[in-house]
Structures are given as C-alpha cells and as structure tokens.
Design goal:
alpha/beta, about 45% helix, homodimer, about 300 residues, globular, 7 strands
Chain lengths: ~300, ~300
C-alpha cells in the first residue's frame, strides 16, 4: 500500500440503514462502518448509494458525529457534502472539516441543468472561500447520468489552477473510460487523484496511475476488491478483475441501492436492512430471490457481516 | 374571476433577490411580492425560477415568515416545498401549513433518476402522512426538463384516488401541450386544477377548463398576463396571447432567471437586483443590452416597479 496520507485504495459509498420509521439507524450504521474499516475499505459516507440526497443536512451531520464519537478514524472517511443548495453544501462541508474530515467528495449543485462551467466554477469557488480552511481537500464528483450536471475537463483544469491544493481529485462515475483516461493523463500527474467510480475500472485506473476506486459494491464485496487493489501488479490481476466484474453484474441487474441493502440483510440475517427511503423501493420477493441465487452461484459470502447485527 | 377559494388565475414563481453576499434580501423580497399582489398575481414562492433549490430549508422558512409578518395574505401564496430529501420536504411543507399556507407546489424528489411510479407515489404519500393536515393542498409539479423526474398520468391518477382532496392540482411545465391537454381532460373534471407552466399555454389551458398559469414572466409582465386571464373569452384573446408570447420570447432567448432579475433591475434602476446564486451566472453586458433593446422594441414597461426599490 502506498505510504501517503492522501486517500487511496478502495472506498465505498456506505449504504445508510433506516429503521422502520425511515429514520437513520445509527447503531447499524456504526457496525457496518466498522466492518468496512476492518475490511480495509474507506468510508465515502453520504454518496449516491448512501441515499445521501434523501437525507437532510442535519441528519447527515448527526450521522457523521456518531461515527466520530464511535472512534472511527476521520482519516478513513470521505463524506459526500455536495447538495443542491449552496448554503447546504457550505454547512455540511464546514461541519465535516470541523470534526476532522478534511477529504470530501463534492457533487456540483444538481437541480439546475444546462449550467455553464463558469457557474460551476463559481459554485465550487464560493464553497471553498466560505469554508475557508487550508485543510480542506475536495474530490469533485462526476456522475452525469444521475446528477445530470457533468464536470468537464476544462472546469477541472480551471479549478486545479485556482485551488491546486484544495482540489485534490475526483470520483469518475460516468462509466466512460475515455473520460477517466483523460483525467488520468491530464490531471493525475499534477497530484489530482483519480478514483474510478466502480471496481469495473479499478485495474485500468491503477494501471493508468490512478488512486483506486470508490464503489457501491464495496459495501458487500470489500475483501475481493481490496485484494485486487493490493495485488494489481500480480499475474492474476486480470483474473481478479474478471471475478469482481461477475459479482458486480449480479447487483447491476437489479436496482443497485436496494440490492446492496438486501444483500447485507440476507447475509446478516437481518431483513430490515433492506429498508430504503422513497423514491427508492426495496426489492420485491422475486428480485430478492434473483439476488440470492445469483450470489449463491458465485459462492459469494460476506465473512463477519452476521456479527454486525 | 371565479368565485372560489381554490387558487386560480396567474401565479408567479417569485424571483428571490440576493444581496452582494448572496444572502436573501428580505426587504427587496417583500416589496417585490407586494407589487405582484397589487398586480393580481399570486405568489408561487420557492419555484424553479426563485432559485429555491439553491437555498436551504431554513432560508426558505425565514423568507416565508417574513412575507407572513409583512401582512401578505397566505391565501395568495403557493410555496414550493418539494426538496430532494424526504425530511426536508416534510419540514418545509409542515412549516408552510403552520403559517397558514395550505396550498403548496411540490416537486418530486429529484436527485435519483429512473425511479418508479411506486417510489414517487410513496414519496408523496409519506409527505402527506407525516404532515398530517386535512388543510394541506398539494399541486404536483411536473417539470421533467429540469427535475429529470417526470410525473406520469398514471401516478397522478393513483395519487388522486388515494388523496382526492389533498392532491389539488398541478403545474405542468413540460411545455408539451399534449400532456397538459391529457391532464385537463382526465383530471380537471375531478377538481384537479391544471395550471399551465407558462403563459404561452394560458389561453389554451383556460379554453380546456384549466385554472390558469404559474409563470416565470409573471415577475415582469404581470398586468398583461392577468388581462388575458380576465378577458380570455373576449374577441381579442388570441391577439393578447400573441402579444404575451412576443414578450416572453425576449426573455426565453436568454438564460431565464438572470434575465428576469436583470429586467427588474433595469426598470427599477437597481442593478443589484441582477444578482444570482451559483450555479447561475448574471447576464453579461451584451446580454443585458440584448434584453434592453428587445424589450424597448416592444415598448415594454413595468409600471410602479421603480417605487419598490
């Protein structure tokens, strides 16, 4: 593993457990986060797969406080702090920095569409100026198929020029390898750390000099993904990548977030884990069976997950 | 004008003035709202054109309190209360109802894309159950080109069946007349009030039995739009519609929200009115000139607006 305090390796957008009243379940949350940390996976809490944008800023602040109070190292966290509203993004980012989480993953404001690079530059700049911390490190979050607000290479170049230390990297969830490749070639040499948005691109990203991946399925398949990260120069790296892709495909055939939560529920024998907030809908029985049989065929397991319940 | 307490006529998503620090300017806001009320325009505060999703729930609650404290009648307001997060939507809707604003315009949760009608139904149902007020009246807000989360006719039918009094109508901002027409034919007879999303469709909507329009340009051209609403059965109705379309076209050629604010600034001799929050960008000098000359050619005016500064 690289000797550096810069985030690297495998992170997961931690799925957020909700109780039956749809409130965040802090106890289950801490246990799942500790399990991930034990598996060498960093905590990209409040990502897309965390249903972060179905929660208020206050709910997210309280969850972050709970993790810090539970002794989970802030150096292993990369909270998502980008909201639709400028003031929400500033408040959540400030809070993250105040509790020692200096690395944040930041969506652009995502309600207004067709906005200009100038407007997006000002959005990030305004947040940086308002938070006003030299310790802040922002990973810009490119997920155009969901946010519908892409981050262009030109925007990143301009942000890097103005805030060379604070703009620290990206998660590229576009699924467009040409875009990831361009980021690796143009910006990684400047110390801008490129994380692939899923483990499908982990090996290619590492071969291109990137930092790792931030991936939904890190929630359920952490050990194997970390094993590829740690052995990516090995002769079996391509075989490992192929195996990871096969596991991910079982989840990707279903609605991803409900499928991740259902899998945790299945392997932890805790069906309530499948609860999601609207507008998402939990897997139905047929989908659960499809998930179970698909994973069983791969002899999938989640060692230790049952102890987290 | 119809003798009914149900909202009808012309509403405007009130543009939100920001000061130079980008904070909402409550004084300018109250004066602009009073001017609109004097022009017989209802206040759809916190709409898309209000930059509502660039503000936090707290900022919107405080603005609403300011309007109520200023004595503006809540019966003339229809605040937008739909946020990305379930808990934010509940909080803002509850607050609106608590201060006497029973009619709200509600976006679906808009971060997650490709969500099912089942998930959207549960989203609205959960808000309705949590707010728990028989006085609540929801106008569902269909603006797929921005939200990227369309509201299908099937969803509306299901909502109307389950919550026949609370689901009160819609703003259809799709710009797709076939969709508006289908809503008018299927749901307006059940007392579901259809508002066109712009005055381009005002006459057609009224002829189809609809309730009026909720339109961005109500902020700047209220009197003429209201005049069509009040005289839509007149022989000059089509000519009035044509004139409204010509005025709107001047704004629609430019980024709409910055153009609305710039126009108020121009006619009120208050250039700071042009301020927007990122990710939006104020008009540049060339765009301002285009706006000024386009409006001058139409002999456009905003009577009384200069007294609001």
């Amino acid at each position: 593993m690289k000797q550096t305090s810069r985030p690297h390796g495998v992170y997961s957008p931690v799925v957020t457990p909700f109780d039956r009243s749809l409130a965040p379940d802090h106890q289950r949350y801490v246990r799942h986060c500790k399990w991930l940390i034990d598996q060498q996976v960093g905590l990209a809490v409040f990502g897309t797969n965390s249903e972060a944008n179905s929660m208020s800023v206050d709910e997210k602040k309280r969850l972050l406080d709970t993790l810090v109070d539970a002794g989970i190292p802030t150096a292993r966290m990369m909270p998502g702090t980008g909201c639709a509203a400028l003031t929400d993004t500033v408040e959540l980012t400030r809070h993250a920095v105040s509790v020692g989480c200096h690395h944040v993953l930041m969506l652009p404001p995502f309600y207004y569409k067709g906005v200009s690079d100038e407007g997006l530059f000002r959005s990030y700049a305004e947040v940086i100026e308002r938070v006003g911390s030299d310790a802040l490190r922002i990973y810009v979050y490119h997920i155009p198929q969901v946010s519908q607000v892409p981050l262009s290479l030109g925007l990143i170049e301009r942000l890097l020029k103005h805030y060379p230390r604070i703009i620290a990297g990206t998660k590229d969830s576009s699924g467009d390898w040409n875009n990831t490749k361009a980021m690796l070639e143009r910006f990684q040499p400047q110390g801008f750390d490129v994380f692939a948005g899923s483990e499908n691109f982990l090996l290619a990203t590492l071969r291109g000099g990137g930092a790792g991946c931030i991936t939904a399925t890190g929630n359920v398949n952490p050990a194997a993904i970390v094993a590829l990260y740690e052995n990516w120069r090995g002769v079996d790296a391509d075989a490992r990548q192929k195996a990871l892709d096969a596991t991910r495909a079982v989840f990707a055939r279903l609605p991803m977030i409900p499928a991740l939560k259902a899998a945790i529920g299945i392997y932890a024998h805790d069906r309530d884990w499948g609860t999601v907030r609207p507008p998402l809908v939990a897997l139905n029985d047929g989908q659960r069976e499809e998930l179970e049989s698909g994973l069983a065929q791969l002899e999938f397991s989640m060692p230790g997950i049952e102890a987290t319940v």
